[in-house]
Structures are given as C-alpha cells and as structure tokens.
Design a protein that fits this description.
This protein is of the alpha+beta class. The protein is built from eight helices and eleven strands. The strands form three sheets. A four-stranded antiparallel beta sheet has the order 1-8-3-6. α3 packs across α4, α5 crosses α8 and α6 packs across α7.
C-alpha cells in the first residue's frame, strides 16, 4: 500500500486544518476528549469504509483523502450521491437516528480517518453542546447536498449542462488553485454522479476540451473559461 500523506498533526487539538465549517472546530476541552475516544485508521484506494444497510457501530471523520458516497436504487443500480469532504463526519445521520448505514463509502484515494464508536460519540455530543450544534450544521450540509443532487438530476438539464454545473461546483469546493481541480474519478464514476451514461460524459468533456474551456492532464482539470460553463446553464447568454 502506498504511503499516505503525512498529517500536520495526529492530534485534533493541534490540527491546523480545522475551520468554522468543520465539526471538529471545538473548544480545547472537547478536542482533548475527541482525541481520547478516537482511533486513527487508513484506507487504500478502493477500500470500503462501510457498506449500505449494515448496522452503524462507528462514525468516521475524514482527515485526509476522500471517499465516494453511493447507494443502491430499487432496481439495483448504483447511484453516486457525491464525494466526501475533508472534515466531514461519515455515518452521522444513521448514528443519531439509530438506522443502518444509508450509503456506502469507498476510498477514492489513500484516505485517513478518525473513527469513533457510536456510543462514545453520542455521549460526546451530550457532554459538549457546541459539538451537538456542529453536528446539526453538518446534517444540514448533507441535506443540502441531497437537494443539489435532486436538482441536478431532476431539472431536465442536458449532459453538458450537468457537467458544467458539477465542474463549477468542484472548482468552488475542491480547487487547489484558481483554475485547477483534481478529480480522481473515471468517466464512469462521473456519469454515476450526474445520472447519465459514461459515453455521454466522455463526449461532453471532449467537446469542452476542443473549445478550450477545460484542459485535462491526467486527474487534473484546468478550467480556463468559467463564464462559458455558466453560460451553458443559461442558454440565452451563450455566445455563438
């Protein structure tokens, strides 16, 4: 297994990556307790973090890397809900509700997580009210992501429009620099995410490359013309 990126710190209380949008942006006393009850685990690309329908015995906070979040449709098709974000708490809604895992999580790349026993985590939320508030904020973000997914698939957008909307979202949330987005996804995975066929995704990306809107180098997407992507979502503004 390849080496994982080295964390700035393995201690929550001294981690420099925390910010106001993350669950673990807490007071020092809470972070000390979070360190005490956690177990650090690593997963190689393709490893399963947990499976849909299984009982929830633990939750995980994504410290490094990312995971794909998928669920099975009634007819057995795999639907991708989205990608986890650094600092996201996986399994939170199921742990609080007492239901089984609602999605499956698979490491998209080498990934490191902080794992917590469900019982320990629930006691932690009871002991530290700010953590419970952060958990509520995290759940709201997950609901918003589900709404975005429904809007993307159910709005009648074309393949090019869905791809444009997704690339703009990725640039806003995952860009390393002004125009660079690292996407460790095959065309097939992107198709699952957008609710279209792999072939149509390949054609749409090729079309954007020919127009100079995006440049693709391996897993790196350079978005050169965000205005064109935005115009695809508003056809009346599209320059001919």
């Amino acid at each position: 297994m390849p080496d994982l990126p080295i964390l700035v710190s393995s201690k929550c209380q001294s981690c420099e990556s925390r910010n106001q949008n993350w669950f673990c942006n807490l007071q020092p006393e809470a972070l000390i307790e979070l360190d005490r009850i956690k177990q650090v685990r690593t997963f190689a690309r393709g490893d399963s973090l947990f499976d849909e329908g299984k009982p929830v015995h633990e939750l995980m906070i994504v410290c490094e890397g990312a995971a794909t979040l998928t669920f099975s449709s009634p007819v057995g098709n795999v639907v991708m809900l989205g990608l986890s974000e650094r600092g996201e708490v996986l399994g939170l809604s199921s742990a609080i509700s007492g239901r089984r895992y609602e999605v499956s999580a698979e490491a998209l790349e080498n990934t490191r997580v902080a794992a917590f026993a469900r019982s320990d985590f629930l006691k932690f939320l009871e002991r530290f009210p700010p953590a419970a508030i952060n958990a509520g904020t995290e759940l709201s973000r997950k609901v918003n992501r589900a709404y975005d997914k429904i809007r993307l698939i159910g709005s009648g957008l074309s393949v090019r429009q869905r791809l444009a909307a997704w690339l703009l979202h990725m640039q806003e949330t995952h860009a390393d620099r002004c125009n660079l987005v690292t996407i460790v996804l095959t065309h097939g995975r992107i198709a699952q995410l957008l609710g279209v066929s792999r072939e149509s995704v390949t054609r749409a990306i090729s079309n954007l490359r020919r127009r100079g809107v995006v440049e693709v180098r391996g897993i790196h997407f350079y978005v050169h013309d965000r205005n064109y992507l935005r115009s695809l979502l508003h056809p009346s503004k599209l320059a001919h």
